[in-house]
Specification:
649 residues; mainly alpha; Sodium/glucose cotransporter; 68% helix; globular; Na/solute_symporter
């Protein structure tokens, strides 16, 4: 059976399972649509939370970022995992005890203000839409490869699938679907990792393989030592190298941590359990289920990097990369085991160019000045293709000037640890010009020549990860619009049937918007998701913390804190990523040398959170204290007993 047919069968069976569960567990009331009737057992809720949490960013993109980012990228693991500890200890039990369906509803009641509730709705929608862009990006990448269609077509197919089961099932259907999706994604992630770890290190467990020996050379050399030797020889930074900016790394890790604790679609999962104690238990189980994937991710990323590099330089398997020739275009076009390269090239996420015309594809790191020259030449070539005849002479002269400058750089720039220049080695720059981070996990089984059923299983797992989180986010958006905006502000007398219809319509509109933005995402899946965490860190997390643990914060302080946090963080992000993520509208290049004090857009959420806290405390100190009944309410939330069911709405 060919790979395409196998992919269709495995992915089709998984989708049939999801649709069947959604129909079986479809929501019949607003309580079931928003909170699954608050009858989900803690273990099952922990599993569903794990699926909701381990999105396309975790499954598809995180290992890719670790593969090319090395030690610095461990911030994703530390931040996302640490955030669950904060959520379990500081937020989940108290929010469940409050007995509401949504985060904005808690904010509105705690700060006795419709304006505060409305501001929370705005923040929630912005966070969730940004987050769901990353999921739709992952869906598009996965469908593009395994259904052999364009990324745009893959995105449209994924949107249709999410629409079908999320709109129908609500929280009840999504919860039980996510339990099944967790099982699919964790099997799909770990099985290839076991095979690859065994072949590269001799260790069955990837966690041990990461710190074990490199099997192809007899195990005498540590696996990470071998990886460092190979990538530094090619001019890349050592995989285990320290961070060059600890301040930014700290801010980024903190942003992910407190952003995790402030994510609306994760928080609402703890409204679905019967009791307050179950909320804390659910968080503990979620950490267990998440750890099953997160402890494997560093091994997957590092092994994928080494497998890719040794594929491009076959001699690197047992010696140095330059002991033999690089992979040739003829090999790629002829050998079945390299068919994955041809397939990924069709998607545009992998691109190779034989710049020196020798038939080989040399994968090396270009120094900064050579990389800048390459970028300028590519831009000039694109400009020439679109220019009118009258303008072509000037552009051609510019290209000639850049080409001459390139020859000078090639004559002086050295290749990695070889000590030889590009010219001496007959190279004209890096010829593996594009390797999208988001393809590494998906391509890993094929690079390692694993069986076809493993490749198909990874496809199903990637789609399970992306679709489960997308569904949770879309539910958070729809509940904010229908329950908090329409019922809470615009039409309090709306019937339950009308509210349910409004929720489903708003979810449909959210899917359309997320699909449109997913066509031009502001980064890799994990990077886009990190932006959403920054926004959550700067807006939702502070207002929830102050709402639970400070009886002095009033509605004026809460509203102004959210406004300052949201505006500061989003404007900083838009300056580098483009206004509202529209390509080409950024004010400054998205490069480290342009960041203020070296703080990247992915890390700015921590500063936004500090500004939120400071603003709220200052404004509250100079305005009227909260009413007595609100102060008593805050005190009662922290009492560990006496939590009842959610209030009727």
């Amino acid at each position: 059976m060919d790979q395409f047919t196998l992919n269709l069968i495995v992915v089709g069976l998984s989708f049939a399972l999801y649709f069947g569960i959604a129909i079986w567990a479809r929501a019949g009331s607003t309580s079931e649509f928003y909170a699954a009737g608050q009858g989900v057992p803690p273990v099952m809720n922990g599993m569903a939370t794990g699926a909701d949490w381990m999105s396309a960013a975790s499954f598809i993109s995180m290992a890719g970022i670790i593969a090319f980012g090395g030690y610095e990228s461990s911030a994703y693991l530390m931040g996302w995992t640490g955030g669950y500890v904060l959520l379990a200890l500081l937020l989940a039990p108290y929010l469940r005890k409050f007995g509401k369906f949504t985060v904005p509803e808690f904010v509105g009641d705690r700060f006795y203000s419709g304006g505060a509730r409305l501001m929370a709705v705005v923040c929630l929608i912005i966070i969730s839409v940004t987050y769901v862009i990353g999921q739709m990006t992952g869906v598009g990448v996965t469908f593009a490869r395994f259904l052999e269609v364009s990324t745009s077509t893959g995105l449209y197919i994924g949107a249709a699938v999410v629409f079908a089961y999320a709109v129908l099932g609500g929280m009840k259907g999504i919860t039980y679907t996510q339990v099944a999706q967790y099982v699919v994604l964790i099997i799909a992630y770990t099985i290839p990792a076991l095979f690859i770890s065994l072949s590269l290190t001799g260790n069955f467990l990837p966690q041990l393989g990461l710190i074990g020996g490199y099997a192809p050379s007899g195990g005498d050399v540590a696996f990470l030592e071998k990886l460092d030797a190979v990538v530094t020889e090619l001019g890349f930074k050592a995989y285990t190298a320290d961070s060059s900016n600890y301040f930014n790394m700290f801010l980024f890790t903190m942003s992910l941590m407190i952003g995790t604790a402030g994510l609306p679609h994760v928080i609402i999962r703890f409204f679905t359990v019967p009791k307050v104690a179950d909320a804390r238990s659910s968080a503990g189980w979620a950490l267990v289920f998440i750890a099953l994937l997160y402890t494997v991710a560093p091994a997957v990323g590092s092994m994928a990097r080494l497998n890719l590099t040794t594929t491009m330089w076959p001699a690197a398997v047992t010696g140095s990369a330059f002991d033999g020739p690089a992979i040739t275009r003829a090999d790629i076009d002829a050998k079945p085991e390299l068919s994955w390269i041809r397939t990924w090239e069709k998607t545009g996420l992998l691109k190779m160019v034989d710049k020196n015309g020798d038939g080989q594809i040399q994968y090396v790191n270009e120094p900064a000045d050579l990389a800048a020259n390459t970028k300028a030449l590519d831009a000039a070539a694109a400009e020439l293709a679109k220019a009118a005849d009258a303008d072509k002479a000037a552009i051609e002269a510019k290209i000639a000037e850049l080409t001459t400058a390139r020859e000078g750089v090639i004559a002086t720039a050295t290749v990695g640890s070889t000590g030889k220049t590009f010219a001496e080695m007959g190279l004209n720059g890096n010829e593996l010009v594009t390797v999208n981070n988001d393809i590494m996990v998906l391509a890993n089984p094929e690079i390692a020549a694993l069986p076809g059923w493993v490749v198909a299983l990874v496809a199903a797992g990637a789609l399970a990860a992306a679709l489960s989180t997308a569904a949770g986010l879309l539910l958070a958006i729809s509940s904010a619009i229908s329950h908090d905006l329409i019922k809470g502000t615009i039409n309090p007398n709306i019937s339950e049937k009308g509210e349910l219809l409004a929720a489903r319509i708003s979810m449909a509109f959210a899917i359309v918007l997320a699909t449109y933005l997913g066509l031009n995402p502001p980064g890799f899946a994990a990077q886009t998701v990190a932006l959403a965490f920054g926004l959550a860190a700067a807006t939702i997390f502070p207002v929830l913390m102050m709402g639970i643990f400070s009886s002095r914060i009033n509605k004026e302080g809460a509203i102004m804190g959210m406004i300052v946090g949201l505006l500061f963080t989003s404007i900083y992000i838009f300056i580098f990523k483009g206004w509202f993520f529209i390509p080409g509208t950024n004010n400054l290049p998205d490069t480290p040398d342009q960041y203020f004090f070296g703080i990247s857009p992915l890390s700015i959420g921590t500063i936004g959170a500090v500004l939120n806290f400071v603003t709220a405390f200052v404004v509250s100190s100079i305005t009227k204290a909260p009413p007595k009944e609100v102060v008593e309410l805050v005190e009662s939330i922290r009492v560990p007993k006496g939590a009842g069911a959610a209030q009727a709405h």
